């Protein structure tokens, strides 16, 4: 048994799909399959039941999951302990356009950990969660996170959701919109696998407003998607309010949505046993957000 085999095992156990596990690890699928086969041979047990349609953990595989996570976390802690100034470097996964809130948090972090430095990493919400769980990140800021094993979520603040539509569309004449106004237009969302909690929330809100959303092409990136919406006959997307405030093109109209419940929580995500840098950030959050909701396991 080696660490690479355990890393591949955990990726497959969490994805229950060899292809997605390979994509997450940035390797080809046969490499993941070979590592799993070697691990199974070394342990003398089957870890997965495989069919052409699905992958499932065996009883032995389910027993190995918590042990493998503990081993990988211990390895990462050991690496941080011997790394020069490792405890004073905050490896923080960030979301798009956090604005002055991020500046304030990092200033407070600096006061809590004098001499500390920050390494900001911007990857998808799913990847941020995975990296915190594996120990590759000390903490992450994530909107619309759902509880997952191996991490703790601390609610920080709420962001309203706004709509972005072509400025030339007749609906842009309204100062505010409701979701039902947009029901006839294609909706562009990020792929569900990248942010399932957010996508599910928007889809459920549309249904609560009385319509099944017509999904258009996926939201690929802020600039590209907004340009394509601006030159479309009529499509729309949803943005966090902080993001909407920085949209500068005159071809896009950003409008508040009056539907209830259209706000998204931003969470601080840490491991179950945060190191010094993550603890300093937790203290900074407690100082800035004096009455947060209870942490979510």
Automatic annotation (TrEMBL):
InterPro entries: LysR_HTH_N (IPR000847), LysR_subst-bd (IPR005119), WH-like_DNA-bd_sf (IPR036388), WH_DNA-bd_sf (IPR036390). One of its GO terms (molecular function) is DNA binding. The keyword Lyase does not apply. Keywords: DNA-binding, Transcription, Transcription regulation. GO terms for cellular component: protein-DNA complex. The keyword DNA-binding applies. Residues 1-58 form the HTH lysR-type domain. Gene3D superfamilies: Periplasmic binding protein-like II (3.40.190.10), Winged helix-like DNA-binding domain superfamily/Winged helix DNA-binding domain (1.10.10.10). It comes from the Bacteria. Belongs to the LysR transcriptional regulatory family. This is HTH-type transcriptional regulator HdfR. It comes from Actinomadura macrotermitis.
């Amino acid at each position: 048994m080696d660490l690479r085999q355990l890393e591949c095992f955990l990726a497959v156990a969490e994805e229950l799909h060899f292809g997605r596990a390979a994509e997450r690890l940035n390797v080809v699928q046969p490499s993941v399959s070979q590592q799993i086969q070697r691990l199974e041979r070394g342990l003398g047990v089957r870890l997965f039941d495989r069919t052409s349609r699905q992958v499932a953990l065996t009883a032995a595989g389910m027993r190995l999951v918590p042990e493998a996570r503990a081993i990988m976390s211990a390895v990462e802690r050991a690496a941080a302990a011997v790394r020069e100034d490792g405890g004073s470097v905050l490896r923080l996964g960030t979301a798009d356009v956090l604005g002055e809130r991020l500046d304030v948090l990092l200033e407070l972090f600096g006061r809590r950990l004098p001499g500390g430095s920050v390494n900001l990493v911007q990857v998808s919400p799913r990847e941020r969660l995975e990296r915190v769980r594996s120990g590759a990140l000390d903490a992450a800021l994530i909107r619309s996170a759902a509880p997952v094993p191996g991490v703790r979520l601390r609610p920080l603040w709420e962001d309203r959701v706004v709509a972005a539509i072509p400025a030339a569309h007749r609906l842009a004449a309204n100062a505010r919109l409701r979701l039902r106004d947009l029901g006839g237009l294609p909706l562009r969302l990020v792929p569900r696998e990248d942010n399932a909690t957010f996508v599910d929330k928007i889809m459920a809100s549309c249904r609560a407003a009385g319509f099944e959303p017509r999904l258009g092409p996926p939201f690929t990136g802020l600039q590209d998607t907004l340009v394509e919406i601006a030159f479309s006959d009529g499509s729309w997307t949803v943005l966090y309010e902080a993001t909407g405030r920085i949209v500068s093109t005159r071809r896009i109209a950003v409008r508040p949505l009056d539907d209830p419940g259209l706000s998204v929580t931003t969470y601080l995500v840490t491991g179950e046993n945060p190191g010094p840098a993550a603890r300093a950030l937790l203290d900074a959050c407690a100082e800035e957000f004096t009455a947060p909701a209870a942490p979510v396991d």
